[in-house]
Design brief:
434 Repressor (Amino-terminal Domain); 13 helices; 3 domains; about 15% strand; 6-stranded parallel beta sheet; 12 strands; Rossmann fold
């Protein structure tokens, strides 16, 4: 395996000179630089990333933690973070945590040893105590965390209110909600928006709220049980599109029709909603944009540590498709 000493010997220079050329740090005259570069090419020398990070103090690596890579929402986020990372010369690392705190901590410890430059977190389990020892910049994405981390999110509560308002405008009289996990801030705010709009309606009770846990299968089962107990439901607001597909399947399994018998509106705006039957009306998040902004803010914090940045909340957009009247 070729070493930096081999390059120095072939170029007839010191190891320190080769290091300055590789890291573009310090003056090296043109002729010497050309000899070093020729030696690197001749020997096919590839600098050790860890050594370079120790020399520069930066690894040029950014990590994104996501809780469920099977949910199409997160690959769309990841694509945006990867694009911006590459644009600024950073290597992108994707960590799927399965919403498991132990996996998150294991990833954090491993990445810390590799001199990671920054981390974007989509997490509902990481505590402020667990993050205290992390010395690199971090950004919360998609959901707010209990710590004071800068976050990039959307207006979940207002978006949920708009969804329920739209169902009412289209004639729905009894609107149920398939909610996300009670530990996830986005799900909590979407539930809050739903309750804002129905809490004063005479028909409303807690029976109209079912926990779908952001799971298609769980949403399917909960919707079937809901409609057996509350057969007069004619509208359902679902906390994400993945569950929305499960709701559509449950309604079909009960021989009811969407939207003639029951209108369905969900949240996220992932491509899955366009290919479902019927296609899902949804409150669409600017998924790529929020991923992009999280990466841009993180890189700004890495490269300009003293610059003050603020949390951002972006708007969702009502996207009308076939699942509502």
């Amino acid at each position: 395996m070729t070493t930096i000493r081999d390059v120095a010997k072939l170029a007839d220079v010191s190891v320190a000179t080769v290091s300055r050329v590789i890291n573009d740090k310090g003056y090296v005259n043109k002729d010497t630089k050309n000899r070093v570069e020729a030696a690197i090419q001749a020997l096919d020398y590839r600098p050790n990333d860890v050594a370079r990070s120790l020399f520069k103090g930066k690894s040029k690596m950014i990590a994104l933690f996501v809780p469920d890579i099977k949910n199409p929402f997160f690959p769309e986020l990841a694509r945006a973070v990867e694009d911006i990372s590459n644009q600024y010369g950073y290597t992108f690392i994707l960590c799927n945590t399965d919403n498991n705190n132990k996996k998150e901590i294991t990833y954090l410890q491993a990445l810390s040893q590799k001199s990671i430059d920054g981390i974007i977190l989509v997490s509902s389990t990481m505590s402020s105590t667990q993050m205290k020892g992390i010395k690199v910049p971090m950004i919360a994405l998609d959901r707010k965390m209990e710590s004071d981390l800068i976050s990039v999110t959307v207006n979940n509560r207002e978006g949920a209110r708009q969804a329920v308002q739209y169902l009412k405008q289209t004639g729905c009289q009894r609107i149920a909600h398939i909610a996300g996990p009670e530990t996830v801030s986005s799900a909590i705010h979407r539930l809050g928006g739903y309750v804002d709009e129905v809490k004063n309606d005479a028909w409303f009770t807690s029976h109209y709220i079912r926990a779908g846990d952001y799971s298609m299968d769980k949403a399917f089962e909960e919707t079937k049980q809901l409609l057996e107990i509350e057969p007069d439901v004619d509208g359902i607001f679902v906390a994400n599109d993945v569950m929305g597909v499960g709701v559509l399947k449950a309604i079909k399994a009960l021989n009811k029709r969407v939207p003639k018998d029951i209108s369905v509106i969900s949240f996220d705006g992932i491509e899955l909603g366009t290919i479902s039957t019927p296609s899902l009306t949804t409150m669409a998040q600017p998924i790529y944009h929020i991923g992009k902004r999280a990466a841009e803010i993180l890189i700004q914090k890495i490269e300009h540590p003293k610059t003050k940045v603020q949390s951002e909340e972006h708007e969702v957009t009502l996207t009308i498709r076939e699942s509502t009247r």
